[in-house]
TrEMBL record:
<keyword id="KW-0808">Transferase</keyword>
<keyword id="KW-1133">Transmembrane helix</keyword>
<dbReference type="InterPro" id="IPR050297">
    <property type="entry name" value="LipidA_mod_glycosyltrf_83"/>
</dbReference>
<keyword id="KW-0812">Transmembrane</keyword>
<protein>
    <submittedName>
        <fullName>Phospholipid carrier-dependent glycosyltransferase</fullName>
    </submittedName>
</protein>
<feature type="compositionally biased region" description="Low complexity">
    <location>
        <begin position="497"/>
        <end position="512"/>
    </location>
</feature>
<feature type="compositionally biased region" description="Gly residues">
    <location>
        <begin position="513"/>
        <end position="550"/>
    </location>
</feature>
<feature type="transmembrane region" description="Helical">
    <location>
        <begin position="384"/>
        <end position="406"/>
    </location>
</feature>
<feature type="domain" description="Putative mannosyltransferase YkcA/B-like C-terminal">
    <location>
        <begin position="606"/>
        <end position="691"/>
    </location>
</feature>
<feature type="transmembrane region" description="Helical">
    <location>
        <begin position="220"/>
        <end position="239"/>
    </location>
</feature>
<dbReference type="GO" id="GO:0005886">
    <property type="term" value="C:plasma membrane"/>
</dbReference>
<feature type="transmembrane region" description="Helical">
    <location>
        <begin position="84"/>
        <end position="101"/>
    </location>
</feature>
<feature type="transmembrane region" description="Helical">
    <location>
        <begin position="445"/>
        <end position="466"/>
    </location>
</feature>
<feature type="transmembrane region" description="Helical">
    <location>
        <begin position="330"/>
        <end position="347"/>
    </location>
</feature>
<keyword id="KW-0328">Glycosyltransferase</keyword>
<feature type="transmembrane region" description="Helical">
    <location>
        <begin position="121"/>
        <end position="141"/>
    </location>
</feature>
<feature type="region of interest" description="Disordered">
    <location>
        <begin position="497"/>
        <end position="599"/>
    </location>
</feature>
Length: 710
């Protein structure tokens, strides 16, 4: 009897063959098997490749956790939130809830819950960051795979994993990794609503972006024009239903965005902390001012910041993403992504209105373009790590575009499509060599990456063209793999550097220093302590590791009265560091500095003295800025008042408020200097010097008691 062979597995548009579905028992064993092997219709290599990428991402984000310093500013707020639920809710810098940080608190809540559950320390704060970083890679893979297949999804996931600035910021305690994850959740729900026409996924999309707003305010809204356009154009519903659903989704967005702001602004100012970064002690002013239009137009409603973004990311302009500072952080794949976006939309030009692939291209293209223009043209304070929010759009376009361009190159008209894929590969390969040339001499790693990018890029372009015109499919496939190597060699080198080197906790970047403030080699300030659950409680003990990589839980000696915790570079001066016994307060984040205590040194010996003589006060001391306060909080474990916010220019402390705190015995010590600016600050400095008792051993430190208040 003749036995018929089974038919070959069908070939999908992305070039991968479907597997024949194996028999399943529908039980736990079957589900566990699919977790590691993937769905029956996936190619056999797809799920193992995904797991390998996720392991790589986790390794990059979590490598040598003990060397991660984090951002002292947010670390202190998280620590304070573990000591007070009031400070936790408001996102206060100190456990006494005198002033908030200048961002909404959702990211602090996530890290704070981890710290409350597992104790306060580096890995406890970093655990959520590593989780959302790896989760973003997995989520992007799923989104791209649904519309463009496993090959595209794998390339996208690998591209996001190896985005240098994403590696750098995920190894930090800034809120951006959580922001990106929430935005991707919003995109996932939006695309589901577009496909199905159902309302609830659109509502959940609005909720996700609302939580992103409560992570970093207006930056979460950059993607909204693309979201609205994609749904209005491509959703599988009538025009009337699309408009109604958008209205409901917008309500969900507004509610989930505004609830915390409304609650806080409705609470009397006397019953809550001052809103750091605002001019009138309201969250609304923070939204539209310093964290809103101030970032775009270069002057917030609270302080002037014209042009200060150039100090971190270079001058504003369309070329900013390609300059010496930003080029190695994000620009590697931009040429390929831009070509892929245009070509992809042309390829889907005659598709139906509801075509899922075109809708996805519109979403990821809008994500990329809107972020690019926002960051490139922003005149206000601009840190390089902001652009990690742009990375998913670039990665998705590279993955989806690589498959679409390859299929068009292989099957389309040679005259029309025979040059597009080679041109895209050549453009990004040449650009990679240019970026790596800028840092030639910085190390063997970058030299090797430059050679690999140049050789693999050249081989890929030649192989693609020869294979296309000689009809050699295997050669084209090998050339396509060479293109992936060429395009990712540079980002891989920078990412490896970010994962294995100490970075500046306030302004983290990857790769060699190229002139921007911060970057490699600078610590973020006092590191959280280890297994003891928080900053030291023994007088005089500095709880964290040192900025030179000291292990957690090994307090440095205070015998010399100094604690080296790395420098925090922010703005035009080093701010908020405790190095060689000093905590220096200066200008930062593009905001005008110099308020009460500006430039005053606060030594570890002074902190020991303050703890010994706290005499039951709520706050250990009042200082000028958040940077100085946060370092003292992390060293002492006690609440510290930041009178002027991030740079000393907030009107958080008034003379009347100071007198009230002193009279109630809640504050005894204050650090002032002769550099006070602004009438209220000068008034406070004058009053303190006239009525307080100078502590002779520590310049600028004054003791105040209830009897000193008239």
């Amino acid at each position: 009897m003749t036995t018929l062979a089974p038919p070959p597995a069908p070939v999908r548009e992305d070039g991968a063959r479907h597997r024949s579905a194996p028999p399943t028992d529908g039980g736990l064993a079957s589900r566990a098997r699919r977790l590691f092997t993937g769905a029956p219709e996936d190619p056999r290599w797809a799920r193992p490749a995904l797991w390998a990428i996720l392991v790589l991402a986790t390794a990059l984000y979590a490598w040598n956790l003990s060397s991660i310093t984090g951002n002292t500013f947010y670390d202190a707020a998280v620590y304070s939130g573990t000591k007070s639920w009031k400070a936790f809710f408001f996102g206060a810098l100190d456990a006494g809830s005198f002033i908030t940080v200048d961002k909404p608190p959702f990211a602090l809540w996530v890290m704070g819950l981890s710290a409350r559950a597992f104790g306060y320390g580096t890995w406890q704060l970093m655990l959520p960051m590593v989780a959302v970083g790896t989760g973003s890679v997995a989520l992007l893979y799923r989104l791209v795979k649904r519309d463009f297949g496993a090959v595209a999804a794998t390339v996208s996931a690998l591209a996001l994993t190896l985005t240098p600035i994403t590696v750098a910021i995920t190894r930090d305690t800034n809120p951006d990794p959580i922001l990106v994850f929430l935005m991707l959740l919003g995109a996932a729900a939006l695309l589901k609503s577009v496909r199905t026409g159902r309302l609830m996924p659109l509502v959940w999309s609005g909720v996700a972006i609302g939580f992103a707003f409560n992570t970093k305010m207006m930056q979460a809204y950059v993607v909204l024009p693309a979201f609205f356009l994609v749904y209005l154009w491509a959703a599988n519903a009538s025009l009337g239903k699309r408009i109604r659903n958008l209205a409901v989704g917008t309500v969900a967005l507004i509610v989930s965005s505004a609830w915390w702001m409304v609650v806080v602004d409705l609470i009397p100012a006397s019953s809550r902390p001052y809103i750091g970064g605002s001019t009138d002690n309201t969250v609304w002013d923070l939204v539209i001012g310093y964290n809103g239009f101030g970032r775009i137009f270069g002057a917030s409603s609270s302080v002037g910041s014209q042009g200060n973004g150039a100090g971190f990311g270079g001058e504003a302009g369309l070329y900013r993403m390609f300059n010496d500072i930003m080029g190695g952080q994000i620009s590697w794949l931009i040429p390929f992504a831009a070509i892929a976006l245009v070509a992809g939309l042309v390829l889907r030009g005659r598709a139906p209105r509801t075509d899922a692939r075109r809708a996805a291209l519109m979403l990821w293209g809008g994500w990329f373009v809107l972020h690019y223009l926002t960051f490139a043209l922003a005149e206000g304070t601009f840190h390089p790590y902001y652009v990690t929010a742009m990375a998913p759009g670039i990665a998705a376009l590279v993955g989806a575009g690589s498959v679409m361009l390859y299929n068009a190159f292989r099957n389309g008209s040679a005259a029309k499509w025979g040059w597009v894929l080679p041109a895209a590969v050549a453009a990004s390969s040449v650009w990679a060599v240019v970026v790596l040339q800028r840092v030639s001499g910085s190390g063997t790693l970058y030299t090797v990456a430059e050679v690999v990018a140049g050789v693999a890029g050249t081989a890929s372009v030649i192989g693609l063209l020869v294979g296309r015109f000689t009809k050699r499919q295997r050669l084209m496939g090998v050339a396509a793999l060479a293109a992936v190597v060429a395009l990712l060699a540079g980002p891989a080198a920078y990412s490896a550097s970010a994962a294995t080197s100490s970075t500046n906790g306030t302004n983290p970047t990857a790769g060699p220093s190229t002139g921007g403030m911060g970057g490699m080699g600078g610590g973020g300030g006092q590191r959280p302590s280890g297994a003891d659950g928080g900053p030291g409680t023994n007088s005089g003990e500095a709880p964290g590791g040192s900025g030179d990589g000291q292990e957690m839980g090994q307090p440095p000696s205070n015998s010399g009265g100094s604690t080296e915790s790395g420098t925090t570079e922010s703005g035009t001066a080093e701010s908020g560091s405790i190095e060689s016994g000093t905590a220096e307060s200066g200008t930062a984040d593009g905001r005008t500095g110099g308020a009460m205590g500006g430039g005053t040194q606060v030594s570890s010996a002074m902190i020991t003295y303050l703890k010994k003589n706290q005499d039951g006060a709520t706050w250990l001391v009042a200082v000028a800025t958040d940077q100085t306060a946060s370092s003292i909080i992390l060293e002492s474990g006690e609440p510290v008042i930041s009178m002027g916010g991030w740079s000393g220019s907030d009107d958080a402390m008034t003379l009347a408020k100071l007198k009230s705190l002193v009279k109630a015995g809640k504050l005894h010590y204050i650090v002032v200097s002769d550099s006070g600016q602004g009438s209220s600050n000068s008034e406070i400095s004058t009053w303190v010097k006239a009525n307080g008792t100078a502590v002779s051993d520590y310049s600028g430190l004054y003791r105040l008691d209830a009897s000193d208040v008239s």
